[in-house]
Protein 1
Amino acid sequence: MGLFLQVLTVLVITVSVQGWVALGCLEEERIALLHLKDSLNYPNGTSLPSWMKADAHCCSWERIQCNSSTGRVTLLGLWGVRNQELGDWYLNASLFLPFHQLNTLDLWNNRIAGWVENKGNEIVTEEDDHNLSPKFQLEFLYLNSRGQGARAFPKFLYHQVNLQYLALIDIQIKGKFPNWLIENNTYLQELYLENCFLSGPFLLPKNSHVNLSFLSISMNHFQGQIPSEIGARLPRLEVLLMSDNVFNGSIPFSLGNISSLQLLDLSNNSLQGQIPEGIWNMSSLEFVDLSRNNFSGRLPPGFSTSSNLRYVYLSRNKLQGPIAMVFHDSSGMFALDLSHNNLTGTIPEWIDRLYNLRFLLLSYNNLEGEIPIQLSRLDQLTLIDLSHNHLSGNILSWMISTHPFPRQYNSYDYVYSSQQSFEFTTKNVSLSYRGNILQYFVGLDFSCNNFTGEIPPEFGNLVMIKVLNFSHNSLTGPIPPTFSNLKEIESLDLSYNKLDGEIPTQLTELFSLEFFSVAHNNLSGKTPARVAQFATFEESSYKDNPFLCGEPLSKICGAAMPPSPTPTSTNNEDNGSFIDMEVFYVTFWVAYIMVLLVIGTVLYINPYWRRAWFHFIEVSINNCYYFLVDNLPILSKFGFS
């Protein structure tokens, strides 16, 4: 019994001490937290109200986690705590020195504008200055500014060796790529250095780094070629984001050796040459964006049977030749963007193999021929752009998906959604759409082609569509009244066609419509009533329709209006003819006089033709004379004399 009481007493004391330590934290760290609060609230903020001087239990304060055994702070989640109206925050990094076991620090969205340079605790000193060597080793660090600068990497980073996640975003650090960060931190898994004004070549670690799976250096000023040995030095990469830099040269073949790579974004650089075929045969690759470069050559003839490609973006390059790609296993293909290239030939019939395709952009190429019926059968499409080609024939009726956008259900869902980007013309303006908004954007653009025939009324079934553009074609017939079902539409452009008939009055029920144009057609009758959205449309929406009247046009509807043309009319009566007789008479006499002047000038200059002309006249007069002499008796019998 005595032994039991002793053990119980020890347990109670141990639990009590541990509980007190966990709640109370260390005094030096409590003071440091209060100094940090004062810095965040300078000059008169009200953030972190639970951090009070009279409270010794700092481990119970908001946004703090402590080690339950030692009572030391291990996590500071200070994202978005600074009042935005206070302006920029100049961070004194020495405030974090007392936290010996701090391993997670999040300072995102606090308007960090730079580092305090006290007599600092200066944070931007030379690399061999170890006076500020911190006692803590971070595992997670996220710093996000608003484009202001620290001018150099924070000094404490040179002494970190346990980092697993590091994000420095929108900070004007400048300088070269910090390959020492990767070399020093062998456990590093994710590294974000986005929009940090870094420049120079992209430097790889000296040795192979087997833990780094995520590397983003987008939106910097890196230049030169992508190192040829990148596949050997970073063999376990799953995500590589290098967009919006100044890289040139070709894609190194060693990239194709990174078997784990799932997402590759090299867009908006100055890369050139042909795209290595090894890229298309990577079994894990799902997302590839090589748009806005100078790649040339032809598209690959086919993809590997083990390819998992879901998103392919190749727009704004110099690719040429036909679309001859063959997709062996394409059930998961969601996006294909080949716009703004020099592609020729027709839209391939195998397109229906991409039966889960959501986005298809083929605009600004030299494609010709008719739309294959297989394309219109892809009932999952939500965004289709075939504009600015040489396509012809009739426009087929289409289906637009109303199903929710499928999710990938992998660890990089948020990356896939944020990296998606398309250019699409809406409201007569070419805009760039990016991120999650694409999941809700539905549009169709067939403009600037050679399509003929009538608009199928089935387009009125696309009730979720936001943008519909058939402009700059040769479409005929009326505007389908079924367009009044397009309740979500924001932009409707039917201009520069040969449409006739009246504008359906039901279109005034489209309350979401912001852009509307039927200009340069053969429409007739009265313009829609100036109500709701139609009260905002100006004359430019209706101009150059000869038989259209009513506001906002200057032509007033009335009895004096000439009747509208009918496609079957063939008579030349004045009240239904398209010929202006006054213009006809003037042009006839001008042409007649010009012909006489030309003949007279030629005969005056050339004596040989002159003699031939007079001989022809003489022969003609003789023939006429003998004709009359021979036939005069016969004509006199019929009353001619």
Protein 2
Amino acid sequence: MDYLKSALPSQIMSERGSNLVVINPGSANVRIGLASQDTPFNIPHCIARHTKQIPNFTVIDQIAPLLKIPFLDEGPGNSFPRKMGRVDGHNPHIRKDLPLTWTNVYEEATNSSVSLETSSKDETGQFLDPKEGTHSKEPNASERKFKEFICGEEALRISPTEPYCFCHPIRRGHLNISQYYSMQQVLEDLHTIWDWILIEKLHIPHNERNMYSAVLVMPETFDNREIKEILSLVLQELRFGSAVVHQEGLAAVFGNGLSTACVVNIGAQVTSLICIEDGGALPSTGKTLPFGGEDISRAFLWTQRHYQTWSPVHSDVFAKPIDLLMLNQLKETYCEVKEGELDAVAVVHSFAEKVPAVSHKTRLSALNVPPMGLFYPTLLTPDVYPPPPRTWFHDYEDMLEDTWHIDFSRRSDMPDTFYPNVNGGLPMWESYPVFSTKPKKEEKVGLAEAITNCILSTGRIDIQRKLFCSIQLTGGVALTSGLVAAVEERVLHAIPPNEAIDTVEVLQSRTNPTFVSWKGGAILGVLDLGRDAWISREDWIHNGVHVGSNKKYKDSYYLQAQAMCYMNS
């Protein structure tokens, strides 16, 4: 303790964080890095596996029903009529980016064979060896070998004509399990992606993995069984020496050096809200909205098609992930929350089979409409994929709730809000009863109403006033220009007139909102190092985590979200 008081924070992070790997998984991206790093690797959370059964590139998420795209100027949710704007020299939104390119799906050539990527031709058209500068034989297509799997952004840039099956192991805040994507395959894909990152990005080989500990910063949407499976993955398959679980919303508060806030995490596919008071989460305030940044990107595309500004480009965000990658880049560059007209001129790219991308200079229209879908969800196009089915686990089992008949000792200095009033469950997750008293967490309301309801559900005027002045936006969408002012204005108007609250403030993030939860997880991991919250690999494999071993705490001040008290059978 004396060391923690005297040492510089940077010194503590450097010394204690060099063997801590912080993992913050999301539906679209996984943020992973050493706690001693300033920022993590932010890698698309996807994998493409070579397949011989399916002739062409296939996207497997869920079975897609027919998609009916509503017109954006129909329905009660759209209060922003179209205003025609000019496209002239006064508009600064012209960005010249290098186009995305198709991924090379073949193994690197060795010895006698030379890859087309590294070879060049002389004046006669013959290939030159890149090392010797001498003539070499053009590789035969039959001699080339496909990569077994491709992860991250390279997986997003695979041509649809290639024999690969593309998967997202996490979707809409849950493991993406369905009759077409088994739990075993989901976990295997997660293992492959994370193992690839650990080896290729962090350079931690298997034989050294036991010297590292893992800090799992888990989204509030994850259920207890999902966390149990991921803990098994980290401790058994990935071979970490020990691991601990922290809650994403609480980590976000620590990442910004706060103790109390209403955390609004706008992810790629879900938006989650939870209130934090004095370093502890208030479980009853947790809410989930079924939309995020990718929904804004799809709304961006539908908007352009509606106004017929996308005609020369054929884009399919479901069959070609590279199109979604491009749309995300365009959305992040051009979309903002702003009244009136907002048009721009941009260079977009069309991708056809294996040929290079074709550039199109295109006028983009109504760029302020898609991000307004956060406040008016009817603006967002219905998802072509339904959420993962919930047949093998239940939404009511979340990482904040106690599910055991165990009388834990409680600390006298912790308020009642740390102890949710939930019916007791059964010792094993296979037979949990349904708790009819628990309200449905997922809500289909706008962001302003959700924030207001989240804060008012605390039931105390003193903490309500504090939280309305301590709203924290996290996630990549939080960087959207104009969003902070819009949240403050719309939340203020959403507060019922009988509530004695007249001030709303969104706090400025001290670090990049995309990485703030990861950073908070690194801080919590370093500060909690050596406490009983950690689960060792040996305990997990040989003994499980026993009832009464005091490894599950209701004391979220020290443990935040340790959800695991299961026999590992």
Protein 3
Amino acid sequence: MAEKMGNEASSSGGSIHRGESVVIDHGCRLSSCGYCKSGGFTSCSHGLWAQSITVDDYQELLDRGWRRSGSFLYKPEMERTCCPSYTIRLKAGDFVRNKEQNRVYRRMQRFLDGTLNVKKPDKVEDTPNSSQALCSLVGNASSSTMVSESIAKESFAGGCGDNHKAEEYIKYLSSKIDNAVRTCVERGKIPSVQLPKAIVKKVTQQAKKKLIEVCGDLLYTSNISFQIAAVLRRSQSAETDANQLGLSKSSITQSGQLFEVSPKLVAEMLACSLDQQGELSSLSIKACNGHLNFYSSTPETASRETSVNFVSPAQSSGGSGGKTKCSVLVNNHEFSQHKRRRLEIRLKRSTFDPEEYALYRRYQIRVHNDKPDKVTESSYKRFLVDTPIIFVPPSGDGTVPPCGFGSFHQQYVIDGQLVAVGVVDILPRCLSSKYLFWDPDLAFLSLGKYSALEEIKWVKETQVHCPSLQYYYLGYYIHSCCKMRYKAAYRPSELLCPLRYQWVPFDTVKPLLDKKSYVVLSDFAKLENGASSQLQAAENSIEQACIEPCQEDHIVSHSDEESLSEEDEEMNLDSEVNFGPETSSMEVEYELKADDISDIVLDLNGVRLQYKDLQRAFRPIREQRHKDLLELQLHRYTRAVGAGLSRRMVYSL
């Protein structure tokens, strides 16, 4: 009988021979919230320790709001936690990149082309060879004199309220314009003559009011294009007879091409060059009637994206070290004179890799300020290497992708140097992104956002081999946490209803989440048209099913330089869970009689039997109190994982 139930437990929706799921219930526990930093035990989760779990069962757990940290599975008790965490996903086939995501892609392509100017760091900590590794990646980057980028970002983040910081930032912008002018001269787009230095001015509120149309918040402007055009006209008059050549409004570049002496054209070239530098991501640059303007918004620039050819991946299914490689080769004749870099994306089974651990250690210490003695091999393995998910090898019937199902590490390697690692689970219906760590010296590449785009792309491509694999799971979304809101930018995204486990479009429930942190999302799934009477009624009914959001002063504020690192984390996805003391089994009241626990399979020191047979096998039960506590625990477990999974997975005591 035990053997028969074991076989039943290993089956999931017809997926036989994929192993069986065996879990140990840790019950509901309190922990300190890692998002709002409110202190104390303010986050409540149900925890399971998985000895093993099938990909089908873990997929169902994901669709009930569960996540994993190593072999530990956890699910927030939404109504009892200060920062409710909603599972968020995206249908990869419907995804279209927005302007910011396109900008991230172009920046990476310019870096691979060798046309992205990068400032080398003055100091690299923790790893002695990291400086040489970075130099090998940015060897051809411009080393021209510039104001420290960190000072510039600090000035902009603070709104340039301090006069000294404002002056430093204006000097920084002036130096970037001078670099752009030199670049245009070197490429023969502007004649090589002695040109004036750029002067940047801050736009006052009085000046803004006089403008007829402003795209975003105009902060700075420069009239350097008019000065350059005037110098070129004077130079042309001195060197040639304008009447004889008929070039009264043009000049000849170093490449022999005609150049129109127009402030508007000069401004457009400089704006394009500044955008290609990719170092002013906090500002958008626009040429307006010869003026070079800097705005706080980020409209899409007109720079051209470099074409990318993806080499067909060589699939490998054997052994724990099997890898899938995808090489990115850049083809762009315009940049043929620059040194190109080679990006490889390798998919490998989840195993310990010393090079990955070294990168993880640097990332945790420099980005998250972890203490070096806390970032150990054992904690790294426990968090990102250990996995209870049973590997499923590839099949030729279209039900399993060429890489198989299971836990993987996706490595990003540039010119042989490991720069980022994405920890992912590949399951029957999705790729679930768990964590990402990257080289802190390459923060300017927004590797977190870039890796998310690559993972979405992978899902799209893999649907050819495995049609059921359609979704990309981004982990948890916390609307009250500003660090998390970037996840909703991957549209069209859906949130999982914490009560009925239905997927609801994010845009539908966003107005409700703006008012309450915990919402039964499926109650309002029909409000897509936003009728005012319906919305008002819904908002009134929320009071019955919601808790108040965190106090405003408890929410962590992030400066611009902090948000770059935090948002590009992976996917910032989920940190290691450390639970506090276990709550008393009588603290939480459930309607227990609604759940049938009789068919739950129990593992008692290797003996498998259903709960309904427990009394017959161990009769009589000496203490009714022990029976009541066990039943309470099984009812909670059934509520947390669902009736179907509770009967399919083995409950180890």
